[in-house]
Specification:
This protein has 200 residues and is of the alpha+beta class. The protein folds into 2 domains: 47 residues, no CATH class; 139 residues, tt1808, chain A (Alpha-Beta Complex), CATH 3.90.1570. It is built from 5 helices and 12 strands. Helix 2 runs parallel beside helix 5 and helix 4 runs antiparallel to helix 5. The protein is globular, with a radius of gyration of 17 Å.
Length: 200
């Protein structure tokens, strides 16, 4: 495994198993070199925007919650017989401007959805990056609560339901509840979210 040697670090946060490092006043070239050093390292997400590099080393809880959210979305879409493209944590970039790697991401009937688990409360910077990338909707799981953000013009506004038409039947508070249930039982979580749709 190759690990890049980091320059002086500006800020390090450790929350719930995640380690988030922020470096400021960096160039796109420095970001690309750093990213190359982490190329074969699992469990690390790198992002760049406005001269700031974010390095996020993921803890077990982070991986658990992003997998639960992805499972619930995919179970719902499968049940509704809706085709989708899972794009995972594939790098999304505008060369020289912004780079982001979601925890999970999807293309659903022409819409782009990014999922973020945010234990280190970096939601604002994440949304700014996704706005530049033109991601239609971002779901952020933070401290037991799911927030849904819909791209409206140049920025995001909060929504109680997904604005992606095929996901609109899923209530935000219900999804939050199902994510928490999914910590102990994916089967119960999946059954609950599907039964809520069937009962309508």
């Amino acid at each position: 495994m190759t690990v890049a040697v980091l320059p002086s670090l500006n800020q390090v946060q450790m929350v719930n198993g995640d380690v988030r490092t922020i470096q400021t006043n960096r160039t796109w070239g420095q970001f690309r070199s750093l990213k190359q050093g982490f190329e074969n390292t699992r469990g690390v997400r790198l992002a760049y925007y406005k001269g700031t590099i974010e390095i996020l080393m993921l803890g077990l809880n982070h991986e658990l919650f992003k997998s639960i959210i992805g499972f619930l979305i995919e179970a719902f879409l499968f049940h509704q017989k809706i085709e989708f493209t899972p794009t995972g944590s594939a790098t999304q970039e505008k060369d020289g401007i912004v780079s982001a790697e979601a925890d999970e991401s999807y293309e659903i009937q022409g819409f782009k959805l990014a999922i973020e688990v945010d234990f280190t409360h970096g939601s604002v910077s994440k949304l700014e990056r996704y706005a530049v990338l033109g991601t239609d909707e971002v779901w952020i799981w933070d401290d037991g609560v799911l927030d849904i953000y819909w791209l409206d013009g140049d920025g995001y506004r909060k929504a109680e339901r997904s604005q992606i038409p095929v996901l609109a039947p899923i209530d935000r508070s219900l999804m939050s509840e199902c994510i928490l249930i999914g910590e102990t039982s994916r089967i119960q979580a999946g059954e609950k979210i599907l039964s809520s749709v069937q009962s309508k």
